[in-house]
Amino acid sequence: MARAAWPTADLFVYGTLMFPAVVSTLIGRVPAMEPAHARGWRPAPLRDRVYPGLVRGEGGDPAAAGRVLRGLTAQERTVFDAFEGAAYEAGPLALGDGRAAVAYLWLDPAEVLAGTWDVGRFAERDLDSYVRRCAAWRARLAYPAS
After folding, report:
1. Which of 25, 76, 83, 101 matches a 20 to 30 Å C-alpha distance to 143?
2. What is the mean pLDDT of residues 9-21?
3. Is the CB of residue 3 less than 8 Å from the CB of residue 81?
4. Is residue 146 part of a domain?
């Protein structure tokens, strides 16, 4: 989805961006966040990565649990676009309550593993080092924090 198509859309996050520490490291604040889910989608573990990719679910998959980030500025969306990179595409989806949102959708099916990404395992084992990696990435980015 072209960036212009989602200037005011809510952003559905289902992986590392559910963590306020990650979001604040990337954009310098924590916007309004509320629980949400997206039916028909699965936060999939990815080969050799600690973060997930959102892919279409299969018949028995539960809805993808996540959060909606509200009130993002254009500059913050630009930072998230750069952070997610070419491996993801911002695309529309419907939330469980019927609202429209945008999410970063994983593009390479060859990297997708079976099952659902384990958010608890990430929080316990990888979150601290991931936040440090995000801080190093953000320090190299040319866009100023909001």
Report:
1. 101
2. 96
3. yes
4. no
